[in-house]
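Narrative summary of target 7.
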Amino acid sequence: MSLNYCDGVYVFENENKRRTKHKQEAVVGFYDFVFIWIQVSGKKAAEAKAQAALEKQLELEKQLQAVRLERDTAQTRLAPFLAVAEMRFTNEPPNKRLDLLIEMVKHIQQTVESAQTKQRDRTIDKLQAEAMVKLLRSAPKHPVTLIFRGADDEVAQLVNMIEEVLRAAQIPLTKTSIISPDPFPPGINMTGGRGEELVSEVNAIKKALSMAGIECATAQIPSSEEPINMRVGRKPPN
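Modeled conformation, tokenized:
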């Protein structure tokens, strides 16, 4: 009996030891798993960072290559101008030659544009016409007679534009076309009486024409009630 009992105790003690050993092994296994998981996660994070850094480096290299290509293209395009600048401004510092060439080209361009502007027909565009009408609506409304040479197409076109503006501003208007050789000096000449309202209206019309870049000479007639006459001659020579 005691032997069996002792055997029973012995067997019981071995079972407890076995269970304790299993628990210890499970804890060790868990910590091993956690350690391995941390290592794997850290490795993946490091790989992700390395991949991101590599992609960023590749993008920067791509941008650098584009900048270099743009620089090389600009240098290729500038080469002829640099050669001209060196030949044209031999006595100037090398770092100022290109700037001097640019200034010279700008001056030539302005000269050409100015010459083209002088050669263009006199005209009044839509925005200019609107501004002129707005100005003239507050001016006196004495009748104006437009006198011009009808055989000149440029003059006739300008007179029609002026007529549209004056009528839109509700200024009474009559037109007289002369077919004979032009009896007027070049440009626009306007006369009127010395009356205060006549002078005010003449000045307003002159100012309105200037908005479109059209010059107009004015003169006063001794008679205070002399009507306003606008003589539109051929385009002034350049």
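The longest helix spans residues 2-88.
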